[in-house]
Amino acid sequence: MAETGVVRAGMMTAEEILAPSPGARLRKRIFGHFGLMLGGGVLLLIILMALLAGVLSPHDPYDQQLARKLIPPFWHTSPKVTWDHVLGTDHLGRDYLSRLLHGAQVSLIIGFAAMVISGVIGTVIGVLAGYFGGRVDMAVNFIITTRLSMPVVLVALAVVSIVGSSLTVVIWVLGLLIWDRFAVVMRSATQQVRSLEFVTAAEAVGCSPARILLTEIAPNVMNHLIVVATLEMAHAILLEAALSFLGLGVQPPTPSWGLMISEAKGLMYFDPWLISIPGVALFLLVLSINLVGDGLRDVSAPENRS
């Protein structure tokens, strides 16, 4: 019997040696996910462009020279094309590449900050409602229903028009308006985890609710939180662009992709590249964030970890 135990122990050791490590499996899942790699590459490129905007910008994004206005980008055949302005200039003679790079900073700052604010609010009340249930759940459901009854764009327009528009105001308005999806998803995910055996065991041994929420609930709903966070970050970026397009978001002369589209709408039939360049940049940013979110969900899902 002892020899058999030794042989079995040796066989298990050999299997463990031959099996890939958890880190190797994780790397394989990450690098084998096409959407995650594509979205992560594009998002990383945009983040680097935003961080290095001061270095990469060939000109001051605020510098206006009417003598050089509406220079076409490099792919046009116009004699006005110059490599000194690779993407051309706008109606005030400002370098479009420089404004595009600095506009990435504005979009990423607003998207990330609004996502953090809304994520904290929605996650806290959603997890509390899902775990405690009862009157807490009823109160949170009433708050969520009240929030869902208010159209985000109209409320944001009303608040910004009354309070005034600035980068800080836009961040807080969006952060305080888009937390409902966090709350709904985290409430549902917490209710599912709440009924599992390891949570019941933690309660049986006398763990406090705070410890259960932090050590048992939170790690098991994290993949849901990641997906919602990426969706809401993209949502916040689009809302900021919409507010800027309507003139109630980031105010001129601050570079903003939504504001760049708004300023060019009167020239869209004559110089469509003024709209297409920031429009394509906005599309790529939102698409890359969504691809990263979907990829992280697939990689972090419990059924994909084995």
The CATH homology group name = MetI-like
How many strands appear in the DSSP assignment?
Answer: 0
Per the principal axes of the C-alpha atoms, what is the gross shape?
elongated
From the N-terminal CA to the C-terminal CA, the straight-line distance is 32 Å
Which fold name fills CATH's third level, the topology? MetI-like fold
Put simply, the count of helices is: 13
Structural class: mainly alpha
The arrangement of helices and strands along the chain is: HHHHHHHHHHHHH
CATH class: Mainly Alpha
Q: Radius of gyration, Cα only, in angstroms?
A: 25 Å
Instruction: Report on the biggest sheet.
Output: none
Strand content: under 5%
> Any idea what the CATH architecture is?
Orthogonal Bundle
Unreliable spans are 1-10
Fraction of residues in helix: over 70%
Mean pLDDT: 84
The figure for the number of domains is: 1
Keywords:
disordered N terminus; mainly alpha; MetI-like fold; 306 residues
Element layout with pairings:
Elements: H1 2-18, H2 22-31, H3 34-51, H4 53-56, H5 96-132, H6 134-148, H7 152-163, H8 167-175, H9 180-194, H10 197-204, H11 209-245, H12 257-264, H13 273-300
